[in-house]
Amino acid sequence: MTGRTHIAFNTTILFALTGAGIILSHNPNAGDIAFIGGIMLGGLLPDIDNPDSKISRKLGRTPSSVDNPYQKFHHRRKFTHWPIFCLVTGMCLYGLTNLYAHPVFSGFFAGLTVGTLAHLFCDMFNPYGILLLAPFFRKQFHIIRIPVGSIGEIFFLVLSIASIFLVTIAFMMIRYLYQNH
Questions:
Q1: How do beta strands 140-141 and 130-131 pair?
Q2: Can you give the pLDDT at residue 61?
Q3: Which of 5, 47, 128, 139 makes an SS bond possible with 53, Cβ 3.0 to 4.6 Å?
Q4: What is the pTM for the complete model shown?
Q5: Are 98 and 106 in contact (CB under 8 A)?
């Protein structure tokens, strides 16, 4: 999936969490705003190991213009695409910042963890999949094989964008019905 598809999907997750009242409910605080930043960054962060990704280019890494047989064979599925690594790291960072730092940091790391896991879920829709149980098992897992940049990915992108509106409307209706009864 491309960076825009990951951002669109993470925005859908963000709107669902907002609509459910998990974040930005009645009294939004700095932790909620940091959560939003974390979830958006988490949508791009796992691809930092790919020099051709949007986040790598933003950080100044040069695209891999030279054919690298190792990269072609392994196709960037390193530890940043291991759900266990992302979950454990995110939980540790959240726990440490929740105990010893300002709540803004724990909100950011909670969002970063959710955003990273949403990114990995999206990557289960491409031909390479993810190493779902790495480092314990090295078998790639995918739900369906949608090539990057294909019409299938464009459909996934459009579906994510449409879901943003549908989720928002659904939660607005639920809140309206709840407040009027």
A1: antiparallel
A2: 64
A3: 47
A4: 0.84
A5: yes
Give residue 39's pLDDT band: very low, low, confident or very high (50, 70, 90).
Answer: very high
Sign of CA dihedral 104, 106, 108, 114: negative
The Cα 35–Cα 24 span in angstroms is 10
Structural contact between residues 12 and 163, judged by C-beta atoms closer than 8 angstroms:
yes
3-class SS letters over 77-106: CCHHHCHHHHHHHHHHHHHHHHHHCCHHHH
Q: What is the pLDDT of residues 92-122, one digit of tens each?
A: 999 999 898 888 999 999 999 999 999 999 9
Question: Roughly how many angstroms between the first and final C-alpha of the chain, as a whole number?
Answer: 43
